Amino acid sequence: MTQDNHNNAYKFGMVIDLDKCTGCGSCMVSCMSENNVPFKEDESNKRDSITWMRVYKLTNGKSFPDTEIAYLPRPCQHCGGEGDHGHSPCVSVCPATATDYGYDTGIVSQIYTRCFGCRYCMGACPYHARYFNWWDPKWPEGMEKYLSPDVSPRMRGIVEKCSFCYHRYQAARDKAYYHGDKDHIKEEDYQTACTTACPSNAITFGDLNNPAHKVHQIVKPDPHPDPRNHHVVGKSRNPKVFRLLERLGTNPKVYYLSEREWVRKQGDHYLEGEWDKIKNHHGTTSHG
Amino acid sequence: MDSALIPEGAKRCSLPKFSIGMAIVGAVLLWGVWAMFLCWFKGLNQTNMNDYYGFALWIWADLAVIAVGGGAFFTGMLRYIFNIKELKNIINFAVIIGFICYSSALLILAIDIGQPLRGWFIFWHANIHSMLTEVAFCLSCYFAVLTIEFIPNILENRQANKVPFFHHLAHNMHGIMVIFAATGAFLSFFHQGSLGGVAGVMYGRPFAVREGLLIWPWTFFLFTWSAAAYGPSFTLLVTKMTEVITGKKLVKDNVVHLLAKISGWMIVTYIIAKIIDTIYWAYVTAPSLGFKLSHFYTDNSFYGYWILITEIVICGIVPGAILVIKSTRENPTLRLVAIILGTIGVCLNRWVMVLQIMAVPVMPFDTWALYIPSWQEVATTVLPVAYGIMLIALAYRYLPVFPQEKELNSVKPITESE
Amino acid sequence: MSELENKAKNDSTISAGEKIAQKIKDDKGLGQGVILFIIAFVVCFAGSTLLFPKLLYSKKEQPFNFDHYLHVYEAGDCEACHYLREDGSFSGIPKLETCMECHVEEPLGVTDDEVVFVKEYLAKDKEIPWHVYAKQPDCVFFSHAGHIDTGARMDFNECHGPIEETKTSRTYEENRITGYSRDIWGKNIFGIKKNSWDRMKMDDCAKCHKEETGHQGYCFQCHK
After folding, report:
1. What's the rounded Cα separation, in Å, for the pair B196 and B218?
2. Domain boundaries in chain A?
3. What is the mean pLDDT of residues B312-325?
4. In a domain? residue B415
5. Secondary structure of residue A155 in the 3-state scheme
6. Element (H, E) at A255
């Protein structure tokens, strides 16, 4: 397997329709129970409690009656890094190789038994997608029996994050092996917990490299680098689709969709006048 | 009582008085040790760090002690490689300060990691692309070098030196010290730099990220430079403090002036580079990512433009100018002001490159995050200071640290100020 | 006030220093010292090599002996008990239910182990708490589907050894520190392996993957 992110390997990604998201938090709950995410008795301090999937509230900043709000669910963005070469902000800084970039799936791993808790990856991640286990997990009496055996529970002193429910990919691959077609995992066989739990179908998950997958059809990722910033690859050719902090060149695999311009504008920072110039520019025109 | 151990011809306070002083500092040390064990056994929940502040007070302290400890490698390099003879009168002390700083830095790192028992993974499973890996390797190696540099001085203790083996060992080690000084300088250029690289490579953090040369961001070079510039200032500051506490003159003025002058020129050149870097970052790098300078310095209760001005002007240009101009450099009061400002300046720079990076919101809908350390963090940060004071006191009392002490204090003063 | 230095002359320490110097020159005892050192080294080395595994591993017996040889003969093949389910997952060690496909009501055979099985487990409808020799740490994901006939077509012996020829169950050894089966590190305390199944560490997986697929695999290939 070569270190090439543009071959026919999978490139799993997600697009979240922010116009459909009601902020109900089902994705957060399903994620926590699917992935054995530990919790504390008092979860009011959001800066030391763990939520692989976190829903942020956005507002347009206007006062009544023009106030509008939107909710933005934020899993790990599974960044491809500058130029989409797999050097994600967190992967490149980990001193002990406890996190790596899977060139076969585009998924950023986190190995709990390898991590020694230096937290450099957390500093490097602009999305705050990485969480530290400040405490040992404590499950209420009897709840241990309900933990998923497919996801390894974590210990104190290490970092964890969303894995795109990788254990579901592993299960789907096993199934594909059994049915003799190991190279083609069906779209419906690998879906993350948050995707399946969302009551308004706001989340679409699949292979960004596969034109048959819904996520590809919505996002229409541009395989060529952005002519304005060669670090940016995979920009959506759908003008309603954006990524968070795309200009940093982190190349996330989580896309967001909204009809509302003010929502799209909150995806990144723009100097005065910049937004108006680029809001309608999406991807290289020759492939539009 | 312990007079047999005290260097020949040197005067030291009485043992009970010394013991009382040590006991007071020792109590502070124990407080820090207690906090350290709390962190080890109960985990990092003892701190006020959180998911926004993965790096906090400790990492700042770590970077700061390494920066001010830079006096050891730079003075060593000047003494042994550029063969500046006068500096032999302060090199022992520079090495001791370096030894304290680096052992403290390693200790802080051992407390800082979430799974201390897995600390060896950084060597065993090293990711060669990570700046932190380079830091760990160079830091450990350089600490070994500093230990080797410190050993001859320990062996020169009056009793140890009577053992022929130790005497010859110390003598021979002095002879080959140039090799270790060169090794130390080489290692230091890298780990000081990679500590700067730690921040500079975080391209997800527009406040930290810098362009650079090949794989090294500009912060890599700026950190090395600033450590070489401000480190000697700190060496002078600690020397001055030791002189005040002991009431003796320990290093001749010409040596102090020389080191101050070197430090001054290094600070001036560094601060020019730093200003260029800051301007380029503020007007090119950050705007290319959609950020205005005001984003990093407004809308919060702590980080304002004042921190930028303090770091660069008050604690950079000012001490640099004082130390470069002969008349101000040789004025003891102004020189003291300059080395204090310089030390604050480099510590402030490290603070900004650790804490402010964490504080600045990156996602447009995120907010500033401020943090106040817990007492356990403060205690473990004070711990190296107490340890440093104790080690300096012990070294000063029992080892011939300052070769000029005897000469400078040969005319017996009528009263002792102690 | 400082002590005056004049008192500091200390004759006894000077002579002590000279004595040490003399001792260094006098090397008559050196040969004996070296021999003593070698003997001490051998004793410590041998002692720790023999003793260390005993300290490190606790021994646990299986609930009762299981005769793989007999079962393979009677049942025909391995897949009768160890098989892939239709979703590609692996059945692992069979549950009581699978045993009861043959062991219905009355004992099959007359061994003591059969008696234990029938009395303690079959009659009480209790699962047998086998100790699993090949059990990997919790952080490991292993795909049987990817390795056996449906995937890489490996022979089960390559990892599990000639288990189909065993007539008794060997003692299970558990690492007291990690809780892992000794089979992971291997029987040899220095980690030396002669057969492919002697050791099952990550490096062993990675080595084979590297040879067979050209890449050792990304972390998540085998981790969960």
Report:
1. 8
2. 12-287
3. 95
4. no
5. coil
6. strand A254-257
Cβ(C174)–Cβ(C58) below 8 Å: yes
CB atoms < 10 A from the CB of A84, how many? 25
The Cα–Cα gap between A229 and B113 comes to 36
For residue A99, give the DSSP letter: S
Burial of residue B267, with CB atoms counted within 10 A of its CB: 0-12 exposed, 13-18 middle, 19 or more buried? buried
Establish if A137 touches chain C: CB-CB under 8 angstroms.
no
As a whole number of angstroms, the distance between CA C17 and CA A135 comes to: 56
A touches which chains (3+ CB pairs under 8 A)? Answer: B, C
Tally the domains of chain B. Answer: 1
**Is 80 exceeded by the pLDDT of residue B415?**
no
What whole-number distance in Å separates Cα of residue A123 and Cα of residue A126? 8
Which of chain A's residues have a Cβ under 8 Å away from the Cβ of B45?
Answer: 48, 134-135
CA B372 to chain centre: 23
Domain that holds residue B149: 15-408
C-alpha–C-alpha distance, residues C182 and C188, integer Å? 10
End-to-end CA distance of chain C: 68
Whether residue B143 lies inside any domain: the answer is yes
Which of A233, A265, A224, A267 minimizes the C-alpha distance to A87? A233
CATH level 3 topology of A12-287: Alpha-Beta Plaits (3.30.70)
Positive or negative torsion for Cα B12, B15, B21, B27: positive
On the question of a cis peptide bond just before residue B206, with omega within 30 degrees of 0, the verdict is no
Confidence of residue A285 (pLDDT cuts 50, 70, 90): very low
How would residue C188 be classed by pLDDT, with cut points 50, 70 and 90?
confident
Chain C residues whose C-beta is within 8 A of a chain A C-beta are: 84, 86-89, 137-139, 141, 143-146, 150-151, 213-215, 218-221, 223-224
Long-range (24+ apart) CB contacts under 8 A made by A22-27 are: A22/A71, A22/A199, A22/A200, A23/A55, A23/A57, A23/A71, A24/A199, A24/A200, A25/A55, A26/A194, A26/A197, A26/A198, A26/A199, A27/A53, A27/A55, A27/A73, A27/A193, A27/A194, A27/A197, A27/A198, A27/A203
Query: Which chain A residues are closer than 8 Å to B205 by Cβ?
Result: 123-124, 126
Q: Please tell me the predicted confidence (pLDDT) of residue A281.
A: 61
Chain B environment of A228 (Cβ under 8 Å) = none
| Confidence at residue C5, expressed as pLDDT on a 0 to 100 scale | 41
Do the domain assignments include residue B10?
A: no
**A173/C contact by beta carbon, under 8 A:** yes
pLDDT of residue B412: 54
Q: Per residue in A93-139, pLDDT tens?
A: 999 999 999 999 999 999 999 999 999 999 999 999 999 999 999 99
> Residue C223: its chain B contacts at CB < 8 A?
none
d(CA A92, CA A88): 6
pLDDT bucket at C6, cuts 50 / 70 / 90? very low
B252 in any annotated domain: yes
CATH number of the domain where residue B45 is located: 1.20.1630.10
b/e map of C167-180 (b: 16 or more CB within 10 Å)? eebeebbbeeeeeb
- Backbone dihedral region for residue B290 (phi beyond 0: left; psi -120 to 50: alpha; all else: beta): left
Nearest to A96 among B49, B125, B202 (CB): B125
Calpha distance A57→B249 (Å, rounded): 64
A114: nearest Cα among B119, B82, C167, B90 = B119
Q: How many contacts does A have with C, using Cβ atoms within 8 A?
A: 79
Mean pLDDT, rounded, for B68-78: 88
Look at residue B361 in the predicted model and tell me its pLDDT.
95
Is any Cβ of chain C less than 8 angstroms from the Cβ of A175?
A: yes
Which of A58, A114, A118 is facing B125, going by the closest CB pair? A114
Contacts of B14 in chain C (CB under 8 A): 1-3
